[in-house]
# Entry
Amino acid sequence: MSRRTVAWAAALGLPILLLVWWIASNTYWADARIPLPPRGEAATNPYYAAQRFVEALGGRASRDRIFTAPPSDAVIVLSTWNWNLSTSRRQALERWVESGGRLVVDGTVVGGQEFARWSGIQALEPARAPARSDDDPSGPCFRFLEERRAGQSRAFERPHWLCEVDAGSRLATTRAVEWALDEPRIGRQALRVRVGRGSVTLINAEPFRYRRIFDGDHGWVLAAAAQLRRGDEVHFLSEAEHPSLLALVWTTGAPAVVLGLTALGLALWRGGVRVGPLAAAAAPVRRSLAEQIRGTGRFALHHDGGQPLHAAAARALDEAARTRVAGYAGLAPRDRVTVLAGATGVAPAALDAALHDSRERSPHELRDTVALLETVRRALIRQKRTGHGLK
# Structure
């Protein structure tokens, strides 16, 4: 190796060694936990975390897109819902609450005056300008005092955090307040009143969707607002994602759909084209003997080259000759031809070919042959019986 090569290797290798040493001195290997994005139902169900929270507390949770009245001791958490969209649906929900159901409504429900008239809860302008709490550095959360009413007295419990409330309005009611979350600067932002044998709780926020259940004290807020007990059935009801029209029709009227499809199928079957011949069947009239004979002849003509028809004509001539010519059965074939030809005036060669030629005949030749045999047969029948001949 030349000195020049050694010098270049040293000049390039030294910086590379220094770089490797610096990387090794300033880096290290360690395990790190990297949160993965939600997958499966957790990515599509906005109440997945809230449902798991309810189940961890001993309840049973489900997500519904269409309202069907659950048991009267169940809980419905209503979100992204139009209260006045359907009168029958609204009245069914109201009847369920009045029979003992617990309804929790968040700030995304559109109710207007109809909901305020029924529940007695309405949103008013804040009594003073809203102010953000400085005690929570993570976001727009406020510390609320829990208010409980027992009889005629009110009791305030320790404060709890509620985030992203609609600070531009406060909740008010003319009915007795059973439970509330109150903040001195922005007023009540959660409120529960008695309606019939059930209760309605309105939260002026959206604290239970996706990861918001982990903000502030939203898990505690859910348990308190729903008056959650072990074994409770909780339904998270939302129409943010509408089912397809076909799914909605099947869910709400499956018996009518089945009956309609059955009636339609029967109507199509009754009015459809029947499977059968293209031409109408001929009227069942009685055929004459001549038509039957001609039909039988056409059938025999088109099968086996007409041989059965020729054999039948020859056999009929032989039977007639046996009854009209004495000693006919003992004659040789050539003699039989001579006797028959002399009696009927037919050329012997033509009669011999008609009786004994076994070659395949064309339809025209077969017709002439059969006609000749039939002519001889009829001539024999018309004459009287003699010795070896006819008169």
Remarks:
- The chain has a mean pLDDT of 80.
- The first strand starts at residue 60 and ends at 64.
- Residues 289-382 form one domain.
- The chain has two domains: 41-240, 289-382.
